[in-house]
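Researcher: Please predict.
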Amino acid sequence: MRNTDRLWAKLVLAPSVILLAIFVYGFIARTGYTSLTDWGNDPAQALSLNPVIKFIGFQNYADLFTGGQPGTRFRQDLISTLFFTVFFIAGCLGLGLSLALMLDRNPRGEGLWRTIFLFPMSLSFIVTGTIWRWMLQPSGGINQLLHLDPNKYEWLTGRSSVLSFDWNKLPLLTAVVVAVVLGIIAFRALRDGQRTRMLVALVCAALLLLWALVLGPNVKLLPAPELHGFNIAFIGIIIAAVWQMSGYTMALYLAGLRGIPEEIREAARVDGAGEWDTYRTVVFPLLSPITLSAMIILGHISLKIFDLVFAMTNVDNPTTDVPALLMYITSFRQNAFAVGAAIGTVLLLLVAAIIVPYLASQFRTEEAR
């Protein structure tokens, strides 16, 4: 009987597994291979019936990170996405937690407020982008309502940038950031009594810092300095994205707050903890898994963002460009399919760098239970 059940289970799952293997992983593999060719580099060959495609290895990736156009635009898009991700996650977490704390006090009309806060999440990014594009028009919307100078408050069309840095210093900055992360890992390992893990993390961090101080300043990715920073025009897009997704984080935090037993809070109060100390030492630590889950989900949304930017600024505004938008332009406007595939593969690796460790830790946690 058990063998029969297993056979039926395999037969039921087989079509889904086959379709998944073909239309997901098969297309990913095809995209990865295309990124290693020169398909589309010759416009005459791009859409021909039998294009002559040559294998060129990682040349497309090298051009993106160290070459001219479209590499210059791609590098700016990566930096823009990094800043967008940081401000988007911080805004969603901060606003979502604030709304959840307010609703956790059971205000009058809680159900109505919860519905209002969750409503933006039911909209698509296209609808959200259209609404906020109207609201952030230079001569209308918020500027007209608050009597702001349209020449000063260019929500979506500004060309100034802040927090700029030279792309040539990216290896140096990356080494320092990774060394700091390894230092944090070493501190946690020391706290948990894992001396071997602590020593390995400290040694790796020390080697990275040594490399950064000695050899890092001499590494040049480009022959000349190339400044990239946070474009002010992204502020409008960040506001729209936070407006839509903060309700999601509010729902997560509210579920977490309602799941904390009141006895734990009462025990903290009996021990003399005030209201702020109770949240700082009891409530917020218990919400840390929810914060991590929200950061992972919001992070992968921000890395793949396309439709919101497309709806708010279209594809012809390079100051608000993102890698997904550049991939669309490169692949379907310029017919440079190999370069577009390379951009898509980089995006896949960035998303995988966030999702895979999280999924692995979740699987280990479930197995431990």
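Model: The mean pLDDT is 84.
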